[in-house]
């Protein structure tokens, strides 16, 4: 039971960390922007993040996933971190949170 609580707490910390990483072209964090499709934590506290970019030609296509991976690895309790980029489904503005849309004046 304690392992489940730790995993849940770790998941919350991962989301808090993701909310500190911003797309350099859009002043919204990658989590609220809808770039993070899934966060998986296994029983060994290895983290896998499935995410996308705003476009395949995104200028930070190389650096953003590395930044995500490095910041997640620094979280206490994380034993390993891996970021997988996918473009299926492609990112659209519909994936943005209401908060992100409001911040960008889209509501």
TrEMBL record:
MIP18 family-like domain location: 12-84
Top-level taxon in the UniProt lineage: Bacteria
Name under which the protein is recorded: FeS assembly SUF system protein
């Amino acid at each position: 039971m304690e392992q489940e609580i730790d995993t849940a707490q770790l998941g919350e910390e991962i989301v808090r960390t993701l909310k500190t990483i911003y797309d350099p072209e859009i002043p919204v964090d990658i989590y609220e922007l809808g770039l993070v499709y899934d966060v998986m934590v296994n029983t060994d506290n290895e983290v896998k993040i499935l995410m996308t970019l705003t476009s395949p030609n995104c200028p930070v296509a190389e650096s953003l996933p590395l930044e995500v991976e490095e910041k997640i690895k620094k979280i206490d309790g994380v034993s390993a971190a891996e970021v997988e980029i996918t473009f299926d489904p492609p990112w659209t503005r519909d994936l943005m949170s209401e908060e992100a849309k409001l911040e960008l004046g889209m509501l």
